Amino acid sequence: MSERIGIAVVGTGDWGANLVRNFANLPGTRLVSVCDADPQRLAKTAAQYPGVKGVDDVSAVASDPEVQGVVVSASAPSHYPLAKVLLEAGKDVYVEKPLTLEVAHAEELCRLAKQKGRVLMVGHLLLYHPGVQYLKKMVTNGDIGDLLYIYCQRVNLGKVRKDENALWSFAPHDLSVILHLMDQEPVDVAARGAAFLQPGVEDVVFVDLRFASGQMAHVHVSWLDPHKLRKFTVVGSQKMMVFDDMEASEKIKVYDKGVDRAGQVVSYGDALTVRSGDILIPKISLQEPLRLECLHFVECVRERKRPITDGVGGLRVVKVLDAAQRSLKAGGQPIAIDPLPQEIA
Ligand SMILES: NC(=O)c1ccc[n+]([C@@H]2O[C@H](COP(=O)([O-])OP(=O)(O)OC[C@H]3O[C@@H](n4cnc5c(N)ncnc54)[C@H](O)[C@@H]3O)[C@@H](O)[C@H]2O)c1
């Protein structure tokens, strides 16, 4: 096998610990260093991985010739400055979601990666989930007829953040899947939410997306909810699909349900007939999506490939989040989505 790819992980908190575990056990990869600004966190992580360097500042990662790819899993406000320093130093970078907290910053990172010829990947984990890949295949093959609308729920009683609201913390996952399945940008986005626990930090948000072809999508995110739900419902003109990531094995159900239009219309009431057929539960691979995502990053670094979840995908999601945030502030008013700058798209 060719030389192993040297990886560093910056930010080894709750989620970063999962990334460190994966990269420490990945074929063709060498975990060179872990970096955290919190000395206690750094000491805890470094103690678990003897032989891996522990550093407290990103500059030590940026200047380390043994490191080719860097994973940024620090808190969201630091994604932009960290990714910028690393790209400028010539590293390939995988940034956790959301790519940045500002559209201009996401655009700048996309331009910088292009200019430097570096890989820029975003942690849109669900696009590596075999369940989401199944949904995409069904939509692309036309197996559900025309895609009409999607709604999803990502709610639980969970980690209450103060740097970002539930929209920026949870919705990147749902929006990345919606944009992937719809394969287009929304025309406009409207959002309403409420900050019950901390002033100015919304705990619950409802987002509506409208697409040019008449399709629509709805996202409900919250960390203040009695249920733990991770669920997508995808409605097509011929079939309907439910992807429930809380199910241990039967994660997808495909319903042969729909409303058919009669060829020869006698009266208005006869024109539409409800069809309720079989339910299919396809076998979905249970491989850990995070491991598949980490393997993909290493493959992109080694083979100089453009990631499935590249910087432009990250920018698309940030644009929708930004519009939703502006709509929240404007009491739910729809906000138009501008096209991507030519040189980035
Ligand atoms: N893909 C997913 O499913 C998923 C799930 C959870 C979190 N995340 C993302 O992962 C990121 C981290 O989330 P978390 O829950 O682990 O947060 P966390 O607060 O538990 O950990 C963040 C860590 O980053 C460190 N840090 C902050 N700024 C730093 C800097 N400039 N240099 C070095 N270290 C720095 C902190 O000391 C802390 O240890 C967030 O962007 C979050 O959105 C992704």
Question: Can you tag this structure with a few keywords?
Answer:
single chain, 345 residues, alpha/beta, Rossmann fold, Dihydrodipicolinate Reductase, domain 2, 2 domains, 9-stranded mixed β-sheet, 6-stranded parallel β-sheet, 9 helices, globular, binds nicotinamide-adenine-dinucleotide
Description:
The chain is an alpha/beta fold and 345 residues long. The chain folds into two domains: 5-124 and 289-308, NAD(P)-binding Rossmann-like Domain (Rossmann fold, 3-Layer(aba) Sandwich), CATH 3.40.50.720; 127-287 and 322-336, 2-Layer Sandwich (Dihydrodipicolinate Reductase, domain 2), CATH 3.30.360.10. The protein has nine helices and 15 strands. β11 (229-236) and β12 form a beta hairpin. The longest helix is centred in the C-terminal third of the chain and has 19 residues, at 311-329. It is globular, with a radius of gyration of 21 Å. The model has no long low-confidence stretch (mean pLDDT 96). Nicotinamide-adenine-dinucleotide binds at residues 10-16, 35-38, 41, 58, 73-76, 78, 82, 96-97, 123, 125, 169.
